């Protein structure tokens, strides 16, 4: 353990989908909590939640609310993080931020504990939690990079609606019900809530997550590209991404093509991944065993399967990677960072 035996922990965005998972994860992990604070917008302040069976009243997230807080887990949107994370740090807290607000800031470590926990030593008060789709991919790619080298990644994602929040989950359910009842649904959330056009997600696939940038890629795709390079310390890595929203409630899936530096067999790659931290290998075509999002829900691990050699490039491999986007993709990675800060005596 670190310098203290227990900590004052604040969860910012406590009433949201990820905030709820953060609370459940802290409980499940028996995190050394001396006192818990639930913080949220003015609108949600006063809501009653629990921690290990005891009632906790949600307070408004203000700068003063961070007095005495040791660890603050943020998941309340980028603008809230930009305003309040520096205020929390000023008052002595270490912030683990689950938004995109600080991910690419040079002086902010962007951390996936299985990959780059040593970067935690360089924190200046704020640590960024990467994008959900980036996290599960780098967990699977890091043991490959370490052992046989990695120079190219092409990823297509198949992302669950829970990544867009509770309203997107409700929209999927309502649209599916309306469609099955022969009624017309009115899309209002996806692909981007604030966008001009909205499309039905039920029984559909939307090849847009976040808004488009000038180069034709979406922000989600650019996040995966830039974050992967930063986390893995591979600025020269050739990487591109296509991110697609599917009518799945939880669990992101990814089809990933990689090119490595030396020829290895599929068996060697499987062995490497099965021994790696945070990974469960599910790969037996004869038994139809492979990762699926439905079966990943509630698990902290990253599931990898369908590993096969490219038919034309001896250095090319294809992988299928699945994880619960609200857990390893958000809440669990945040709590895991907090745990690692304690284990490494950084806090």
TrEMBL record:
UniProt cross-references to Gene3D superfamilies, sorted A to Z: Dihydrodipicolinate Reductase, domain 2, NAD(P)-binding Rossmann-like Domain
UniProt pathway annotation: Amino-acid biosynthesis; L-lysine biosynthesis via DAP pathway; (S)-tetrahydrodipicolinate from L-aspartate: step 2/4; Amino-acid biosynthesis; L-threonine biosynthesis; L-threonine from L-aspartate: step 2/5; Amino-acid biosynthesis; L-methionine biosynthesis via de novo pathway; L-homoserine from L-aspartate: step 2/3
Keywords, comma-separated and alphabetical: Amino-acid biosynthesis, Diaminopimelate biosynthesis, Lysine biosynthesis, Methionine biosynthesis, NADP, Oxidoreductase, Threonine biosynthesis
Binding sites annotated in the UniProt record for substrate: 159, 245
Residues holding NADP(+): 15-18, 43-44, 162-163, 325
Keyword Hydrolase in record: no
Domain Semialdehyde dehydrogenase NAD-binding span(s) in chain numbering: 8-123
Superkingdom per UniProt: Bacteria
Catalytic activity from the UniProt record: L-aspartate 4-semialdehyde + phosphate + NADP(+) = 4-phospho-L-aspartate + NADPH + H(+)
The keyword DNA repair appears for this protein: no
Binding site for phosphate: 103
Stored InterPro entries: Asp-semialdehyde_DH_CS, Asp_semialdehyde_DH, Asp_semialdehyde_DH_beta, NAD(P)-bd_dom_sf, Semialdehyde_DH_NAD-bd, Semialdhyde_DH_dimer_dom
List of catalytic residues: 132 (acyl-thioester intermediate), 252 (proton acceptor)
EC number: 1.2.1.11
Subunit record text: Homodimer.
Task of the protein: Catalyzes the NADPH-dependent formation of L-aspartate-semialdehyde (L-ASA) by the reductive dephosphorylation of L-aspartyl-4-phosphate.
Family designation: Belongs to the aspartate-semialdehyde dehydrogenase family.
UniProt-recorded name of the protein: Aspartate-semialdehyde dehydrogenase
Species annotation: Gottfriedia luciferensis
